[in-house]
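Incident log, support desk, overnight shift.

02:14 A customer reports that sequence design results differ from what the structure should imply. Their input is reproduced verbatim below. On-call engineer (initials T.W.) acknowledged and began investigating.
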């Protein structure tokens, strides 16, 4: 009785923990994109790179500030070192100080307690490399900011594409299931008519083949729908163990699109153009810094 009670309790706790771990979330396209911009691993790394670039800028700036350093050194000798030469001199019986040998037997020039303190102040007066480093600080941080912006654009595109694919797979699955219901009804009617001898068996066989083919397509579409949702969760940074429900339909998504027919493409508005331009500026600072060195 006691053993069965323990097993039942263990099963209950395991089931309770499993139910707590598995969570279901509902997302529209906008909610999915917003979630990805906060939880995607690439976005998190880009944010950390911005923090690192900001800290590196402060590191460059502080190199020209006064540098103060201090030190304290304390030594205590549990046993003072003895000078052997003086000890042998006093131990010589012919030495004029032989009567005092007992008083000067152990001679040491080291104090038992030794305390030393120091303070140092350094100031950079002029360094051309430091000046170029200060000038490059703004563009250096701009590089990390543009990288973060490019990462956000890529994540938005990847999540939107995954959302469309997942929703298309689910709607295709729903359409195939509706067609299967129609085939099932037609097959039932055909069998009834064939049972009355009013139709040929070939008509029933054709509908059975169509039913099997459609069922195979539904099974394949179910797998595609699961893969689509898994890809969406991966792009969002959502745990794969959680379940998600997407709410936006393809017709609603297409209705919300606003495509401009005007040709206003400007490469300067692309983040890649700004990244390359900033890289050229930083290379110019790097060349000038090496020349000044």
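02:41 Re-run completed on a clean worker. Output:
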């Amino acid at each position: 009785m006691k053993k069965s009670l323990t097993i039942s309790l263990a099963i209950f706790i395991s089931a309770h923990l499993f139910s707590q771990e598995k969570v279901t979330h509902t997302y529209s396209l906008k909610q999915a994109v917003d979630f990805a911009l906060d939880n995607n691993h690439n976005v998190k790394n880009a944010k950390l790179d911005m923090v690192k670039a900001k800290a590196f800028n402060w590191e460059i700036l502080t190199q020209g500030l006064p540098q103060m350093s201090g030190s304290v050194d304390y030594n205590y000798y549990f046993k003072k070192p003895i000078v052997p030469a003086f000890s042998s001199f006093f131990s010589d019986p012919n030495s004029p100080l032989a009567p005092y040998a007992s008083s000067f037997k152990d001679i040491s020039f080291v104090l038992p307690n030794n305390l030393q303190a120091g303070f140092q102040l350094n100031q950079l007066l002029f360094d051309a490399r430091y000046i170029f480093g200060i000038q490059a600080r703004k563009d250096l941080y701009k590089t990390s900011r543009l990288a973060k912006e490019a990462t956000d654009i890529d994540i938005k595109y990847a999540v939107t594409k995954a959302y469309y694919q997942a929703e298309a797979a689910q709607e295709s699955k729903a359409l195939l299931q509706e067609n299967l219901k129609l085939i099932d009804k037609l097959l039932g009617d055909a069998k009834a008519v064939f049972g009355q001898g009013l139709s040929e068996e070939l008509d029933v066989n054709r509908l059975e083949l169509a039913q099997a083919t459609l069922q195979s397509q539904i099974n394949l579409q179910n797998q595609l729908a699961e893969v689509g949702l898994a890809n969406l969760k991966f792009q969002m940074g959502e745990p794969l163990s959680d379940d998600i429900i997407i709410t936006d339909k393809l017709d609603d998504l297409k209705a919300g699109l606003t495509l401009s027919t005007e040709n206003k493409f400007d490469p300067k508005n692309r983040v890649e153009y700004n990244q390359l331009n900033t890289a050229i500026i930083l290379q110019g600072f790097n060349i000038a810094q090496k020349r000044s060195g």
